[in-house]
């Protein structure tokens, strides 16, 4: 039982390097966050040893008395947090939660209608080489070409044309709020099920700062690790009538034994997400994203052909539009990386460039709020990003990196983990 530094120094060193990387830069990938130490403890615990196929009280293995209690607590907390009738906390990931939703709500070959991938949808909403596009007949709706917003009238037209068995809400790269009530009405009009994948904005929903899809959707899926700030994994909420189908679709439909160490981490993060501190964190997240959007709308950035999709944001992320800029997404991503800021390039709707370089940047505010940032620090990071993008290749990377270093120093991340080994 040697510590990792002795058992496997090669991996120990890489683990240590990754800790230093996370501590030493500004993490602004919209789908990432930092879990609390309590979640790290769950994930590194003896729960990883335990098989527990089945559900609490109905397992196919002995010795489940404690993991039963953990899973029950996780479920009760999630139900309360989101006001849901049913929850399944076993999906290993967002993609696996979504695969179970398909299995429970539609049949292979059925038509499904989701947001196009290049307009901000997710792979599991119908991408050609994903299971969702291979086993189901995937149709897509796009954003309104003038406003770049999801427009219920466009969804309705597409639904009337394509007769989907399921309409999909939710997104991976979109800066605004959808109208779940209108989408549910469209689903009812065409006789479709309505599923919302709230992976990105689940934390905002938990904090009461974003409309909840739960009252409208037949089923809501999510990841636990984006705005919600929990361990990498998924979960599903639904009306009680879908309980049996969803349970059997997750296990044994898509998965074998649940990852009890991760489920314990989910239980902890549902508890955290119900606290006033979490609400405050989500408020800072939203404020931070707005501050970033505002800075990127300033004249010096505009002069470089750069703008902000939809002119702002209602959520935790900002979509930067580089279609009219000489700088492409790859160059923008690399420039910010040199300054110590990690973001990702992303296609934007009607993108003239291939996805490998793309014409957009997706910038998220969640992880910095977890690190403790408030409006003052977001003003500073927004100005660093704005100044870099306005200057492009002639940016003074060294000076900008020094400003990032100062923020990093003032807001230490995981100071207790320096003794990791
Ligand atoms: N759903 C949405 C909307 C997402 O953005 C993502 C991840 O990016 C997922 C599902 C998939 O989650 P995972 O990476 O855990 O499979």
Summary tags:
421 residues, alpha/beta, seven-stranded mixed sheet, four-stranded antiparallel sheet, 17 helices, binds pyridoxal-5'-phosphate
Give a nutshell description of this structure.
It is an enzyme of class 2 (transferase). This protein has 421 residues and is α/β, with parallel strands linked by helices. The chain contains 17 helices and 15 strands.
Task: Give a structural overview.
By secondary structure, the chain is an alpha/beta fold. It is 44% helix and 13% strand. It has helices spanning 4-7, 9-24, 37-43, 65-82, 94-105, 131-135, 152-162, 180-190, 202-206, 243-254, 260-273, 276-296, 299-302, 329-338, 366-371, 375-391, 397-410; strands at 26-27, 54-55, 58-59, 86-88, 111-115, 137-141, 166-170, 193-197, 219-223, 234-238, 307-308, 317-321, 341-342, 344-346, 360-364. The strands form four sheets. Strands 4-10-9-8-7-5-6 form a seven-stranded mixed sheet, with helices on both faces. A four-stranded antiparallel sheet has the order 11-12-15-14. Strand 8 (193-197), helix 9 and strand 9 form a beta-alpha-beta unit. The longest helix has 21 residues, at 276-296. The model has no long low-confidence stretch (mean pLDDT 97). Bound molecules: pyridoxal-5'-phosphate. Residues 31, 93-95, 98, 122, 124, 170, 172, 197, 199-200, 223, 232, 234 line the site of pyridoxal-5'-phosphate.
